[in-house]
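Support reply, case 0932

Customer input (verbatim):
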Amino acid sequence: VDAVRVYVNSSSENLQYPVLFVVRQQKGVLSWQVPLIFRGLYQRTYNYQEVSRTLCPSEPTPETGPSDQIVFVDVASMAPFNITYELLVTRLENFQLETNKAFNFTASPSQPQYFLYKFPRDVDSVIIKVVSDAVYPCSVVSVQDIVCPVYDLDHNVEFNGVYQSVTKQAAITVQRKDFPGEQFFVVFVIKPEDYACGGSVPSSIHGNVNRTWNLQRTKNLQVTIVPSIKKSVYVQAMFFSFVSFLSFYLGSVVVAFVHYIRVRRKASAGRLSPENGSGIMTSSLPITASTPEGSSYGAIDESSSSGGRQLSSPERGLPAGSDTDSSVEEESDFDTMPEIESDKNVIRTKVFLYLSDLSRKDRRIVSKKYKIYFWNIITIAVFYALPVIQLVITYQTVVNVTGNQDICYYNFLCAHPLGVLSAFNNILSNVGHMLLGFLFLLIVLRRDILHRRAMEMKDVYTLDYGIPKHFGLFYAMGIALMMEGVLSACYHVCPNYSNFQFDTSFMYMIAGLCMLKLYQTRHPDINASAYSAYASFAVVICLAVLGVVFGKNDMWFWVIFSMIHVLASLALSTQIYYMGRFKIGKYYLGIFRRAAMVLYTDCIQQCSRPMYMDRMVLLIVGNLVNWSFAIFGLLYRPRDFASYILGIFICNLLLYLAFYIIMKLRSSEKLLPIPLFCIVATAVVWAAALYFFFQTLSSWEETPAESREKNRPCILLGFFDDHDVWHFLSAAALFFSFLVLLTLDDDLDMVRRDKIPVF
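Our regenerated output:
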């Protein structure tokens, strides 16, 4: 295809009488003026006296065959005086781009460039890669259909086709099906200002000068068009994704089968005992509350202990199937000890607490209380996910209709479209969260069924031994993991600054539910209700939204948030230290006054040893961590506020989990092989996942052009990038983390509850 380029130059600087150039061709008319005027921000203008434009080529048709092109160039001016100009018409030698062959050229605001590309017969999709050694001037690359005129100026390049802003790197994936003629133009435009790419006003025009002449803004660019992946790679990637996570199902079946064989062998050998945790005991033993010597404060004698056991006596005579959710009691009905409120205060403020002291309520009512977590999170998930899905579909539609690829922050060097989706690989990689979340639900359901069967058989270990089995929080965690996959996929439909909270909302809930579950393990009677827990998560998500809006530069927001953060940490610490015996609802300020009084009398006035040393150490370290986060936020005000809050949640969860495991080992409890394996697997997989997470491939904290400088090619199967690997590994890491919480205290299944310490 032959193309012609017209170069014009005029020495006139009179903007009242410009020289007008009109080029008439067979299929169109192209016109411009000299001086050519570009407009920037704040009414600034940029005038150029040299202009060079490529004329829209006309390809010979089979009917007419080769023929000469006839072009008319009209030059006119209304000036009352003579104006000199120069006109030069040249033929372009390298107008058509070739596959896998780099082409270098130069462009400027008044001298844009565009080239033709034709799809080879065996190529259905290509990637246009554009690179430059210089960040500025800011430029735009556009892909347009073969239509005349070609939009190749700053003010009209966005009128047609697909386009991106460019600093040092850009990539656009183009599919054959989008161009019926199997060819397209690649247009390169240099912008008169750099604000669209994160730059500032050119240094030569700082001040009050609003008009600039012939500003030198030339940029050297290199374009390479390479074939994209074939359809077979899509199939391989989907097969790999599903098989990788379905292998976890196979592993779970194998572990369950081996465990079943071991239990049957031990049962047949008659080696079951109430202390080895390997079987079921069929005879009941008297249970007495025990306290260490010297801790007579709050001690309970045999009769008091028996009274405490009578409170949960209904569960000894449970008929089969009585543990169903036939009714839902009000929150006030969950407390089955209203008549001995003073006894509750005595028990929970003992120096040495045991699990029997905090598992005195009716198991049926407590289980129903925790199942509310499950039903509530399903409701939240439905109402949260539906508008999110609708919104991201709208985002994707806007991208497809307008062609503006600056809306979404993809890794364009590894963004593989499928259907209307621009980056299917980022969505597919979230399948692990959904598959592993469902698998975790199945594992929890299996344990729940086995526990119900044991209850129906009235096994002693299910009543008086081991950690009380409440599975509501585990079900909620499984749903949260599945929803994290759904919402992460929604976010990656069009990742940007506005919808990042979709990707993090259920991460907050996962971290919060894990902390609640860890606390509930040995505090089943005093854990937070589902309503207050989800209300707290709602407050956190509201703060995250406010942080997205106001957290960029507003100091007042960070001051208020840091105060809320510190006060909430102190209030929660006081509640944990005194086992919930402070009534925050009645004494909003009294809790802080009492905490200050205890701090003064115990630590300053007489410097006595804290009554609950282990809890005090945990809470001091936890408050130091949270105060450090608050100070960091005040000083640096990170733009990624959602990740900042998520970091607070994760650090608190890791701190609490480490404290729990240390105290467990310190209490001479042991880690069985399965939880030990899960702990090691969690640590290893999280370390690998975080490595890929910090391989930044894009950043909505910057302009789209600056974000594309971080783009990298695919690293797995030619289909997945580093962030996709993070999705795979983080799903596995969360799954192993959940298994740690599920199996961590399996060694206590045959240990009496009055011998299991609370920490």
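We compared this against your earlier run and they match. Two observations from our side: The radius of gyration is 35 Å. The longest strand covers residues 219-227. Please reopen the case if you see a mismatch on your end.
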